[in-house]
Amino acid sequence: MSEITNTFITLEEMEAATNRLLETAQKVGADTWQQRAKNQTPHCKFGEEGICCRICTMGPCRITPKAPRGICGCDRDGIVGRNYLKFTAGGAATHSDHGRSIAHTLYLAREDGDYKVTDAEKLKRIAKEWDIETEGRDIYDIAHEVAEVGLLEYGKPFGVQRFLKRAPEVRQKKWHDAEIEPRAIDREVSQSLHMTHMGCSSKAEALVRQSLRAGMSDGWGGSMMGTELSDVLFGTPKPVDTNANLGVMEEDMVNIVVHGHDPSLSEMVVFYAQDPEMVALAKEMGAKGINVCGVCCTANEVAMRHGIPMAGNFLSQENVVLTGACEAIVVDVQCIFPALGPLSKCFHTKFITTSPIAQMPDSEYIEFHEENAGANAKKIVEMAVRNFQNRNKELVHIPQLKTNATVGYSVEAIKKCLDGVTNSHVDEIGTLKPLVDAVRSGVLRGAVALVGCNNPRVRPDYSHIELMKKLIANDIICVVSGCSAQAAAKSGLLSKEAKNLCGEGLKRVCELVDIPPVLHMGSCVDISRMMVLVADLAKDWTEEIDISDLPVVGCAPEYMSEKAVSIGNYVVSTGITTFLGVNPYTKGGPGVEQWLQHDVEDWVGAHFEVELDMDKMCNRMMEVIEEKRTKLNI
Ligand code: XCC
Ligand code: SF4
What we know:
Layout: H1 11-28, H2 33-39, H3 45-49, E1 52-53, E2 61-62, H4 76-108, H5 120-129, H6 139-152, H7 169-178, H8 185-195, H9 204-234, E3 240-244, E4 254-259, H10 263-273, H11 276-284, E5 290-295, H12 296-306, E6 310-312, H13 317-322, E7 328-331, H14 340-345, E8 350-353, E9 364-365, H15 373-387, E10 403-407, H16 411-422, H17 433-441, E11 446-450, H18 462-473, E12 476-480, H19 482-491, H20 504-513, E13 518-520, H21 527-539, E14 552-556, H22 562-573, E15 578-580, H23 590-604, E16 608-610, H24 614-631
Parallel strand pairs: 4-5, 4-7, 5-6, 7-8, 8-9, 11-12, 11-14, 12-13, 14-15, 15-16
Antiparallel strand pairs: 1-2, 3-10
Bound molecules: FE(4)-NI(1)-S(4) cluster and iron/sulfur cluster.
């Protein structure tokens, strides 16, 4: 690892490093996303505007001035709305299935097993919330019942999601009145696919409403399940120091990169990378030891629980292989480029897929099961270690870029930090009152939740980093997750030194509370943490207010995935106006856009704004925050 850490790294420095790696790519004849993005441009206009329909074989139908309706008579808003709902359902299914797999892991947790209960207190809190008996019971009995009740949330025939009760009552009522309370998680996904079948819904209003509800089944259902039960299993994150950017890869060590989303596998890989037997084997192979680092949300998961360094985010995934120093890139599910298969073949790198859900050509498939997790993980680690001797030293180049980052601000951790300052310690769970005071007094103007991916349509990381810098300079605290969090980390914005980039108010808060101005709240399923945070903030206000009253906005400036759109739907439904820096394939449906960008305001007190110009977006976000402040008379 580079001995030096940089306080801040500019985008230009990162881009220079990438260019240097692209030279290696050229040398070995590897294909890269930069080239493939060029090959794909210009994109199909019909696809971009969302006005291509191929849900039945009478089509595909495309809307043009000459053909304003599909063969069945569906108009542009029907087609755009259905596509949007399908997109959302894809994201909700993905996050929620992740949550389900964590619930299964919890169900298999045993005192002497590979998976144990780490945060028993949190488990009991959830059990109480769900009316599950905790008194005098074995912790694993409670865990299994919580897991089972959690799993039933996916398919229960009656009722709505249990976690909705966490929101202020006014918000719950709005959800009820708008008919967007999610019922069983799987039901919302299924119903979305039913509604988008040929000859079902083509009315913009109905399709948008179900998009919000499907999103809600993710944020207040499946994702929240994933987050909460991961905390029970692997520990609730607390602030921990780590490093970020490509310089976290070590030239003289075995580098294992974990990539994907589900922490069940990566937790085990991290564990076995410390196994004395494996470390000894690494030395036998001529390495100094084993270095695990991460990409995408798996990186967030292990960074905030173990301080595992973060090599990069979504569009850096090829870079880690291009360093020539990656012995294995081990993936679970989601956001994995199929390109890693052929790319790894240009190097000694082993591309190891592990999930039946994400199988790819040109990979070594080691199917991972919770039941034999330890043995599987050990096998993977051993494979990587033995691969060290196959490294081609001539191809090795690790950019010397490395920052410090403090990560792991779960809601519990934020409350604890605040308690430390004010001694306002109320109960074991703590309060957000000091934060409320800071916002009310104007020391902090408000907060922005920055989330989501990278996208070649936008200069990678530029929007994330520039927006954060401007916001903190204006005394707006940022909470971040997913690849946005890693963009922050790579540039140094998650370090405590970043307080020097803040306005006076935020700087004072950072010093007092000893936090960075950009708070890492975890992976993308952890945007559910942000929902709990705003819910608690509204409840801890001088008198309970609605979430939509808070001077808070959401922002996904570089998103690309279906999951991100699902997230957008639940963030807006929760009452937080959300800014998108990439169009969600809705431009061709003015009626759908009218609903998403204006009329949903009547249902949930928030809406979407799409703005491709980052300066304008930043100003608009600050404007919305100030409008909310004025309405609150603060
Ligand atoms: Fe994937 Fe979660 Fe997007 Fe990053 S931010 S590219 S979804 S890893 Ni979620
Ligand atoms: Fe065309 Fe209608 Fe079939 Fe879509 S559902 S492909 S618009 S005929």
